[in-house]
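Internal QA ticket QA-208
Title: Verify multi-chain structure generation after dependency bump
Assignee: T.L.

Test input:
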Amino acid sequence: MRSWRRLLAVLALAFMATGAQAQERPKIIIDDEGFALMHLMLIESDKVDVVGLTSVSGNVWANRATAMQLKGLEITQDEEIPVAEGATFPLVNTEAMTDRWEALYGKLTWKGAWMKEWVEPTVQSTPAYYGPHDPVELPGGNAKLKKSDEIAANFLIRMVRENPHQITIVACGPLTNLALAQRLDPEFASLVKELVYMGGSLNPRQVLDNVSADEFAREFVNSPRREFNARFDPEAASIVSRAPWPKLVMIPSDPSTGAQLTPELIARMAKVATPEVAEFISGMETGFPMWDEIAAAYVLDPSLETEGDDLYVDYNTQFGPGYGDTLSWREHYQPGLGEQKAHVVRAIDAQKLEAMMVEAMAEGNTAAR
Amino acid sequence: MRSWRRLLAVLALAFMATGAQAQERPKIIIDDEGFALMHLMLIESDKVDVVGLTSVSGNVWANRATAMQLKGLEITQDEEIPVAEGATFPLVNTEAMTDRWEALYGKLTWKGAWMKEWVEPTVQSTPAYYGPHDPVELPGGNAKLKKSDEIAANFLIRMVRENPHQITIVACGPLTNLALAQRLDPEFASLVKELVYMGGSLNPRQVLDNVSADEFAREFVNSPRREFNARFDPEAASIVSRAPWPKLVMIPSDPSTGAQLTPELIARMAKVATPEVAEFISGMETGFPMWDEIAAAYVLDPSLETEGDDLYVDYNTQFGPGYGDTLSWREHYQPGLGEQKAHVVRAIDAQKLEAMMVEAMAEGNTAAR
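Actual output:
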């Protein structure tokens, strides 16, 4: 939403209720590889205060993700939110290693920035292939907004040290930035309020019956423990899983099989959003499972969850058939190598998710008036 | 040497020769896990300008290494050299993982900060065991000097960006800080002048015939490809080996088998050093192969080398029997996974090394007068 108008709305609310209430909105940093509905939900919502975006390579290279985030903030007119560019490369994994891995162990369905073509015909579009340092020219032109001078991991460390135990990080891409931050500053994770991340996969099953759902099931039917974010930077996922977050919530791919982005949902959101946001979301490709939107919605209201579990989680960093796979254990079975207990969201209320998405867009529009 | 006196000496030299000559001393940052002869050689020498020290966990935890470096700079009276504390933990490897590894694949000779006791009786002393965050009280008291506010990886990035293609990094501990810097800033390595690192092992053979040499041969006789720095953080060693340094020099353990720190050498150095440095080095334990001193001497004068090779080098990051082992290939045989060509020092002139060490101490004393 337009920030200065939100400020006015918040001030008005402060007069109506208590000033403290308005100040207590949870502070959020979104760490992700682009700018999409998940960002809009958190930025447009009245319930949280997004205090920064960080980019990382994953679906696209970090420089492209940064450009998308800057553009996104122009669309929502939240130019005061800083965007810090994150890691261009995963810690250890590389495009060349992934080529070799596929030659040994079989093809990956999705490889993000390393994707040249789908293995078999797919209704989803094929993204353009770029090099890590190729210049970025977004359709419609780049934003005038500039990224922060800070590197994402340093931005995360500074923000968390300035606001100890107050910042919720919502991470929906590979976990490279968070792993770097933790190795740069061993107290980093302990000073965060909560990490909610989309990553990993336990045992998803196809719920919806349509072409997109059939096709996305390719990602897990023969590899239920593989998920893109973790597979792109397995070492980072393991480092993050072993860091001492006061609260750690994992959104694996499991709950997303029942939540698909449809033209109907986009229309519902566009109807209530600001004209700029409506235009932006009306151009979005549909058919995707709403992986990241579940993470954002969980942060706004954890009662979204209909089935959950507390498990010890880690990621396989062995460069074998299971590289990047999710490892999980019930309490008492974990190896004790530092892996932390995570709250794992196994299923959600998809109707509620949709309602929350529409509500967030409406809140952004109300505040903008 | 005392810095302000060195400044006077340099100014005097500038009058005698050209000002430019004095300004062109190569800029050095030393990345290491303590403060020892290697630091003294570079700091006391007239030939180079040490512009920073960074610490890292390895032989000791990073906080102890930092304290040792601050104390060292008080001894040499170089209080203007900044000390930036580096990574407390390796990227992926951990003490707990190393315990499991030893239970699977056999005992390591040396584990640095994770060392509780020697496996069998050894003439070298057993270091005290500490936790990563235990407070540090050095014998004789800690330095009054304070460490920099910057994290080592950030200090390295800033210095290299402020002095592009001018800084030589001499790294003699695990390569965690350099790996972090490269992942934070993908241009970092390309902006360095040269990296000279002590790490890795190709095929060392015992050269000297005494108890210490016999005992240190345990480190390589049955594991010629294993070396402590690389084994402590194998992922960092691999990241660094794949980074685009304009020039990369590897000092493996091989050339150190012919170069042992003896009481005679210490006496020669103490005789010509400043009283403070003489007292410091006179307390040093002898019997060690001079791993790091070779790296420092190579930076001062590469003609130290008597046998070298240009090889592609990487490190094994598979958590199996060869975890952390050195991988090397002649040109044309490398896999092409990003591994870089390194100049590998295979043998050195040990007498020349000793003479250079004595010379550096004398230079520091001359400048201090």
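Spot checks passed. Residues 125 and 211 of chain A are 14 Å apart (CA to CA).
Status: verified.
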